[in-house]
C-alpha cells in the first residue's frame, strides 16, 4: 500500500461513539455543495484495500449505503492507494451525482483505531463526535435492551458491561491518537454543544475543514438516511436518560468513565 500526502477526493473523516450524532454531522456536511458521502465506509480499518472484500459487516453496509455492487467493489478495492479507492468509489456510486465533488467518510468505528486510520491518509482532517456516557448508555438500552425485549435489569447485567468497555476503548483510542501527535488533525465535537449552539459549532466544523459555512446547512429538506430525526437539529433527547436510568446506574457510569470526566455534560 502506497501512502500518499494527497488523498483527494477524500476531504474529511467523521467518526465517534456509536449513536453519538455522526449521522447528524454527516447530514450537515452534505449540505455543502462541494461535499457528499454515502452512509458509512470502513475501508481505513484495513491495511490494504483488497482486505475490505472480506470485511463484514462493513462490506455489506457499504454496498447498501453507497449503492454499489460486488463487481463495483472488486474494481474499487483493486487499487494501489486509498486515494484511488475513493476516486473509484465516487465514480461508481450512483448516489454521488457530481463526479467532481469531494467525499467524506463517516464511520463511527474509526474512533476505535484512530491512530491507524489517520496514518493511512496523511493530511486528511478528522471530526470526532462524543456525548455524555450516560446518554450513550440510555441509547444502548433502547436499542439492545428494550428493542430486544430485555428489562432494564437484564440489560444492566448482560449488555451494560460490554457496552461500557467498548465505549471506553473508543475514548482511549482518541487519547492515544492525541499522544501520538495527531491532535492538529482532530476536531473534537461535543454532541450536546452542537445541538444547543448549532450555528457556532457547525461553523467551527467547516472552518476546521477549510470550507465556508451557511446557516441554511442546518435545515434538511430531505435527509438521505433515516437516522436523522426531522429536518433540523433537535435538543429533545439530550437529557432523556435522567428520566429513565436509575441513580445507581448513572453513578456507576460516572465512576467507570472517570478518566474522561470532562466528557460528561451537565446542563
Describe the structure.
The protein is α/β, with parallel strands linked by helices and 267 residues long. Helices cover 42% and strands 9% of the residues. It has 11 helices and 5 strands. It has a 5-stranded parallel beta sheet, with helices on both faces. α6 (133-145) packs across α8 (160-179). The mean pLDDT is 92.
The stretches of 5 or more residues where confidence is low (pLDDT under 50) are none
Coarse shape:
globular
Strand tally? 5
Termini gap: 47 Å
Protein structure class: alpha/beta
Quick gist of this model?
The protein has about 270 residues and is α/β, with parallel strands linked by helices.
Could you give the topology of this structure?
Layout: E1 10-16, H1 22-30, E2 35-36, H2 58-66, H3 70-77, H4 82-92, E3 102-106, H5 114-120, E4 126-130, H6 133-145, H7 152-158, H8 160-179, E5 186-190, H9 191-196, H10 198-208, H11 247-256
Parallel strand pairs: 1-3, 1-4, 2-3, 4-5
Helix pairs in contact: 3-4, 6-8
Main attributes of the structure:
267 residues; alpha/beta; 11 helices
